[in-house]
Amino acid sequence: MYPDLKGKVVVITGASTGLGKAMAYRFGQEEAKVVINYFKDDPAIQDMITQIKGFGGDAIAVQGDVTKEEDVKRLVQEAISHFGSLDIMINNAGVENEVPSEELSLKDWNRVIATNLTGAFLGCREAIDYMLEKNIKGSIINMSSVHEVIPWPHFVHYAASKGGMKLMSETLALEFAPKGIRVNCIGPGAIDTPINAEKFSDPKLKAGVESLIPMGYIGKPEQIASVAAWLSSNEASYVTGITIYADGGMTKFPGFQAGKG
Questions:
Q1: Do 253 and 246 touch, CB atoms closer than 8 A?
Q2: Name one Pfam family in it (predicted).
Q3: Is this prediction's pTM over 0.90?
Q4: Digit-coded pLDDT (tens) for 41-65
């Protein structure tokens, strides 16, 4: 646990499920003030707020589409108007779909790039603008993927969005380091989230994924949330412009694990 996170205001996009939900709960356990952004109506949102308050934190929910500039502006403004500040911005909202690249429609390309990359940019911009105005030495975390460095056939739009996110984050980190604003990425590997539930329910498909992980097992959302908490804390105050790969070693060329090659 990180005592300095108590009372900090954190905005998490795409926080109603998966990694976003796990991070919302973790920051609640840190007794932070959590702004839960969600896209579609979800009756479970109120339960999330109740649980976060039960942990000792506080929370509100703000519906919005991160591809829409006005929604992202409203998200940040509601966080500030309700909690009085903004200390941590986590751009987590993301989408993917599998399509052979020669069949990929412009509509699908634009949807993934708009959500994963443009949405993260808008969140970064709005948070940085406020932090500069108020002289807040804040933390921004962009949820990337191992596929910012690992090519992924049939997911060219997703890989492009995460590769773009990497350099966007590094550029912002360099630009705003003198102001004390830190910008980092987390690159999860294979994590047991709802988006992967169907794949991991098939023993053969699950085993195939596990064969790509040197540690041999699928990660849990809570393990990613732990990285986000550390990156947001004073313990990471000298860390900016990096991606932390929480991937069980997936980025370390697992095919060579047994000394082959």
A1: no
A2: adh_short_C2
A3: yes
A4: 888 999 999 999 999 999 999 999 9
- Asked if residue 18 lies in contact with residue 46, where contact means CB atoms within 8 angstroms, the answer is no
What per-residue string of b and e applies to 77-93 under the rule 16 or more CB within 10 Å gives b?
A: ebbbeebeebbbbbbbb
Catalytic residue numbers read 158
Structure tokens at 126: 């709005």
Spatial distance between the Cα atoms of 131 and 36, rounded to a whole number of angstroms: 19
Q: Which domains does the chain have, with CATH numbers?
A: 3-249 (3.40.50.720)
**pLDDT band at 111, cuts 50/70/90?**
very high
